Backbone:
């Protein structure tokens, strides 16, 4: 079980205690329902982990204040959506800014925005391979010269050129 990235107190600071009570009190008792709130917090965390897992470790994401704010926005949005309630405009705008195409999460996934103060998965240093054409073979083959290439292994995808037919 993953520890949620935001707390109930974060949600209360974001949308007030009255707001949290109003949206989570399904039994009309006048008090917040912690189970409903926890479901929304966990859903927000799962969504963020699902999108950012290929770039960041969940334990690192949990340390980030920015990710906590994102999780708070998502959790409050999901809380407001319970029982088919309309989402307040200001919260809907914050949710859209975070999740829309071209939004903050999309920029993180496109490497246009980095979450500050946490390490990314894998190595982010460039690697290179020096190539040569080996003409000793009937079909000229591109070969990597390992002695002058980088020895850092990379988890990045590699583009392969299609085999070019030889005229010989």
Residues:
């Amino acid at each position: 079980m993953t520890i949620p990235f935001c707390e109930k107190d974060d949600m209360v600071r974001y949308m007030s205690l009255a707001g949290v009570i109003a949206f989570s009190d399904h039994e009309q008792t006048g008090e917040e329902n912690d189970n409903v709130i926890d479901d929304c917090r966990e859903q927000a965390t799962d969504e963020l982990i699902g999108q950012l897992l290929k770039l960041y470790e969940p334990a690192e994401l949990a340390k980030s204040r920015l990710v906590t704010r994102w999780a708070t926005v998502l959790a409050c949005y999901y809380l407001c959506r319970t029982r088919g309630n309309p989402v307040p405009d200001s919260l809907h705008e914050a949710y859209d800014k975070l999740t829309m195409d071209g939004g903050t999460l999309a920029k993180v996934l496109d490497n246009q925005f980095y979450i500050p103060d946490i390490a990314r998965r894998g190595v982010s240093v460039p690697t290179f391979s020096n190539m040569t054409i080996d003409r000793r073979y009937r079909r000229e083959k591109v070969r990597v010269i390992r002695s002058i290439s980088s020895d850092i292994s990379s988890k990045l995808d590699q583009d392969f050129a299609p085999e070019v037919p030889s005229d010989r």
Observations:
- DSSP finds seven helices and two strands in the chain.
- The two ends are 62 Å apart (CA to CA).
